[in-house]
Amino acid sequence: METLNDAKIVAALNENTESGFRLLMAKYKEAVYWHIRRLVVSHDDAQDAAQETFIRVFRSFRQFKGECAFGTWIYRIATNEALRVLERRRDGLVSLDDSEAETNRMMADDYVDYSDWESVKLQQAILSLPTKQQLAFNLRYYDELDYEAIAAITGSTAAAVKANYHIAKEKIIKYMNSICG
Length: 181
What we know:
Number of helices: 9
Shape: globular
Low-confidence stretches: none
Order of helices and strands: HHHHHHHHH
Helix content: over 70%
Strand content: under 5%
CATH architecture of the largest domain: Orthogonal Bundle
Oligomer: single chain
């Protein structure tokens, strides 16, 4: 199977929106879902935010000017959707800093694999981080993006992202050592 690169997807979207959108979904559907899921925790919230992400991508594609990589642009939209979910939740239910509430939400989710206890603890450690550190860690560790791309996604600088990532990594190590140690 031929690898889908962003240039082919953009060209397809410009030629035939429907077939281009199918290519877009083939490449980004799962990655966007998991990016959002790691931030909002809940499967249902992640599905809703991912769906809204692709609606926004579809509606605003003509405004994409190529000032950043296409994938970076998509991740920025996905990040904004995840932050909207978290903001609504904070306004209505819990604080973003309430990692215990997020952990409880994770524990209530049927889609979490509890047989891998170390992964559950890692997720708890990540949820205990401030949002900027969560974003930097998730995008670097799970999505393997470079600091420049993460900076473009988060509206920050590469230096700030790098600092947030390293602080997050140290906090996670400390958290994991206190739980497992």
